[in-house]
Amino acid sequence: MVEPFSRSFKGLIIWCVLLYMIQCSLATSNKTGHHFHKWEVAYMYWSPDGVENVVMGINGQFPGPTIRARAGDIVHVQLTNKLHTEGVVIHWHGIRQKGTPWADGTASISQCVINPGETFDYRFTVDRAGTYFYHGHYGMQRSAGLYGALIVDVAEGEKEPFHYDGEFDLLLSDWWHQSVHHQEVGLSSKPMRWIGEPQALLVNGRGQYGCSMAAHYGNSSLSQCNITGNEQWAPYILHVDPNKTYRIRIASTTALASLNLAIGNHKMTVVEADGNYLQPFETNDLDIYSGESYSVLLTTNQDSSQNYWISLGVRGREPQTPPALTILNYRTTSASRLPLSPPPVTPRWDDYAHSKAFSNKIKALDHKSIPKPSPTYHRRIVLLNTQNKMNGYTKWSINNVSLSLPATPYLGSIRFGLQNAFDQTKPPEGFPGHYDIMKPPVNSNTTTGNGVYMLGYYSTVDVILQNANVLKENVSEIHPWHLHGHDFWLLGYGEGKFTKSDEKKLNLKNPPYRNTAVIFPYGWTALRFVADNPGVWAFHCHIEPHLHMGMGVVFAEGVQHVAKIPKEAVSCGVTGKKFMTGSHLG
Ligand SMILES: [Cu+2]
């Protein structure tokens, strides 16, 4: 009697375990969404600002399709290059690529370019809710129009730490009529031919060149735009209901312009930056630099029989581009009715006190998703930003080295220990103490290099970005620096040369956790991050022509822990040759 009972009992247990496992796997598959997208990148005719041109589009769209996922989901983009004569890669800006460093989409750093006709699979987890975007990261393909939005909602069952009734996504960019090829040749010619200021600022790929929607308000030399609403360049209008709260996600993928956004009669409450929550603060206007993203809350509590302007102006460079305009339309009135008052005037381009005051208001929210800053650091790297000459060519350099990327992606060459793929000498940790940042360089000559800052795995790294004078007397520019693969604590900004006494000014209490930080003219910016993501990561100025002229460095950490790099990611250059000769890798 005992034997059969025990057998059936065992069977029952096995059944229970099996049922439990099935339930578990169902529960997991419910939780982890999988988003598959088949994309083709191709040039196509488009009129981003009313002038027909050629843009780099995705599946016939400009900007590219918006990706929408939930935190913890897997995004899979199968990208086919339909450009006829050039390679392509796409970087997922703000996504840290934990465990998938080969999907970061940086040419020569994380992967080989995808050649015309080839397909590459980007498969990665979006681990955190927030406002992100994607863009080309080869040559100047961002300027060519290769970008789109990537929005991650909180995981199922989770809540945002603020409430809203509706949402808008604004992707900001700048646009030139001259082709990127023309621009690239100019930048790398002797003497350099600068690209100049953009012809138009775009909101969701839409701007107006040669006319203004607000021309009738007076002193504009431009004529009134004649828009039916069906044009590719018709403004993206925000339709709202009265007495609601809207979340406006704003991301900037400009090639050059630093921007300021203001909404007539309305205040905004800033709640998110680069995918991390902020201590909410109210503002009349918002500064946004290339590579940054924000969420603001807007309450529609104004006269609902009116519409209001949304204005976007240039910061940090004397603007020759008129502000971008669009309309906040209360559904209680017709969207085609222009606002009664003139558009809000954004701050003067060189009002840096205004920009600094804004930047200093940004503090991290005390939230479980944001780690507390490490109180100390293991290594401090000081990066001097200068403009230089090299045999008559104009370059940007870091500690007098202008970055020139190698043919073989670092991820493969470092992982497989190949010594001949890039310069093995260590790039400089700082610059001479007597260097005068307020004057143009005495010896302006620079060198090019492609060395790597090898970071101790799990070490805490401080970076002091030090701004300086450019080649021209009394000029120092804004540079927004973007770090791949990590967020950093933005410990603070200061004037002049960073010294030991500036140490006490660093915010170790509630620094914002971000992936992009600006350096102001003649100032410094201090960052801290933990090198906890095995891979090779670009850290560079997000102004595309500046990066093109060498303004970046390369960090690597824990590369020996990177497992299973897909062969197609590194089948080029020296690693490609190794595959061809059948040599064993890793
Ligand atoms: Cu720059």
Automatic annotation (TrEMBL):
Gene Ontology cellular component annotations, sorted alphabetically: extracellular region; plasmodesma
Gene Ontology molecular-function annotations: copper ion binding; L-ascorbate oxidase activity
Subcellular location per the Swiss-Prot or TrEMBL entry: Secreted
PROSITE patterns: MULTICOPPER_OXIDASE1 (PS00079), MULTICOPPER_OXIDASE2 (PS00080)
Keywords for the protein's UniProt record, in alphabetical order: Copper, Disulfide bond, Glycoprotein, Metal-binding, Oxidoreductase, Repeat, Secreted, Signal
UniProt-listed Enzyme Commission number(s): 1.10.3.3
Stated name of the protein: L-ascorbate oxidase
Organism phylogeny: Eukaryota, Viridiplantae, Streptophyta, Embryophyta, Tracheophyta
